[in-house]
Model the fold of this input.
Amino acid sequence: MIIVLRRGATEQDVLQIEEAIKAMGLTAHISRGVERTIIGAIGDERKIDPESFEGLPIVEKVLRILSPFRLVSREFQKEDTVISVGGKTVGGKALALFAGPCSVEGHEMMVGIGGRVASAGATFLRGGAFKPRTSPYAFQGMGEEGLKCLVEAREATGLPVATELMDPRDLDLVARYADVIQIGARNMQNFRLLTEVGKLDKPVILKRGMSATVQEWLMSAEYIASEGNQKIILCERGIRTYETATRNTFDVSAIPVVKSLSHLPVIADPSHAAGKAGLVEPLAGAAIAAGADGLMIEVHQQPERALSDGPQSLKPDAFAAMVVRLRRVAEAVGRTL
Ligand code: PEP
Ligand code: MN
Done:
């Protein structure tokens, strides 16, 4: 970290900052120029809060040298992380394809959709049994019964299953059934929840919070990684902006940005970004072209009857036709789907 002092800083000011740096376990390197004095704090600057210096009247600015996240950074690991689960992978040349309904609605429904998405090329089956709904009166998910439906569909299709965990109290239950645990956008900064899934040996999909910056998102991933679980799949699902034409604004730029900053795989969820079934395909194509390592797509047999997110859900036939077209986009950027 570099601390640039204002003109007129006295020896006393320099000494005060030097002592503060030492007290934090780092060493200070002082460079006195003609106009300015610059102090370098050498050591693990992640232990220092830049604000503790920025607030001092004699400090002009503070520059970070290292990113505030470490384990999930490209500096820490150059090679892309590839996560293997249930015979499928996330990361690497082959794109991962998570597909299934927003909510698990029953045994037959899950086995039915599972079969349809599997034959269309999906590599994972998704479905929520615990749903984060804006209204307490809306369908909240089937709970454990829903998890059992997912397992039944896994047995029928061979697809590993991904489902959302909303509350640390449900962790043992959800982890018993799920192959991949999803942390939803609304819980991206539920740090206790992140800490708990960090202790698991199970892949975690970390969705981007709807108002989270890329740095905040990666800091949340760092929470999980710092507990020992490095099997993290980042998922861009759109952010909230002033635009109302779509449910969220799909931040396609976040994909290459995150891939340059982190070794973790990044998938995209165009369904929640768009909020409309008709927009899913163009956003999915853009995500693949931008370097996404996979997609998450909501599919429902009868979207008009879905208990959640019907308007953005594709019918199985439309999903299958879309996958065929997206294969050409994948091929154009050296990936397979
Ligand atoms: C979901 O995947 O159904 C979901 C609720 O997603 P998000 O957390 O991105 O809103
Ligand atoms: Mn949904």
